[in-house]
Design a protein that fits this description.
Elements: H1 2-24, E1 28-31, E2 40-43, H2 51-54, H3 57-73, E3 82-85, E4 95-112, E5 119-122, E6 132-139, E7 147-155, E8 161-170
Antiparallel strand pairs: 1-2, 3-4, 4-5, 4-6, 4-7, 7-8
């Protein structure tokens, strides 16, 4: 009788542990848009919108570990990639994308939004050749508070398009408010900008002084 009780307790313990692991590893998904061209995005757990929390090493490490865990749990392919909206909380309209291919390929993408110029970019594969079998990217350039169409294209080393994936994305409003601006520039007498990071500084329009300059 004593051995039977021990066996029952052992079975219960295993069952409870299995249930805990099952629910702790469960994931939530969210639709990228509300139209027929929607795709599933993964929802990370315990995401924060507090800047004091987001811009901390502890928070960023926790998010990074969640993503790495998801990458190992599933075999993500180009047609069924891992997609996460603004995973690190630092780029409101960006989309994280991860997948693997059997052949070394180069990825590029275009974001289309009505009444705005298309934004296209070849993605950085973090390799010297620009071709890879493990693809991990952050897709930027979506217009906030609008429905964007994101199209990702895979090209082989012979320059042939081997696959495309397109979906709609209802990008959220900017966290700082409606501050998204487009500027038309006359670049007829200037050389093209190289790839890199750029910043534009302007006057604080809330300041009373008109003497401030860039």
């Amino acid at each position: 009788m004593h051995k039977l009780k021990k066996l029952i307790l052992l079975i219960l313990s295993i069952s409870i542990a299995s249930l805990y692991l099952m629910f702790s590893n469960s994931t939530e998904i969210e639709a990228s848009s509300n139209d027929n061209n929607s795709i599933n995005y993964l929802k990370l757990k315990n995401k924060s919108t507090s800047l004091s929390i987001i811009y901390s090493e502890k928070y960023q490490t926790r998010i990074h570990n969640q993503i790495n865990k998801q990458k190992k749990l599933n075999n993500y392919t180009f047609q069924h990639p891992l997609l996460i909206r603004n995973p690190y909380g630092t780029n409101t309209t960006a989309v994280y994308m991860y997948f693997k291919t059997t052949e070394e390929l180069q990825a590029s993408y275009t974001i289309h939004c009505n009444n705005y110029a298309d934004f296209s970019q070849t993605l950085n594969s973090n390799t010297l050749s620009s071709y890879t079998t493990e693809h991990e990217y952050l897709l930027i350039g979506a217009i906030p508070n609008q429905t964007n169409t994101i199209t990702v294209t895979l090209t082989n080393k012979q320059g042939k398009v081997v696959d495309t994936l397109s979906w709609s994305y209802n990008a959220p409003s900017l966290q700082g408010g409606d501050q998204y601006l487009t500027v038309e520039c006359d670049d007829s007498n200037t050389s093209s900008l190289s790839n890199g990071l750029y910043t534009v500084l302007g006057n604080d329009v809330t300041e009373d002084s008109e003497d401030e300059t860039l």
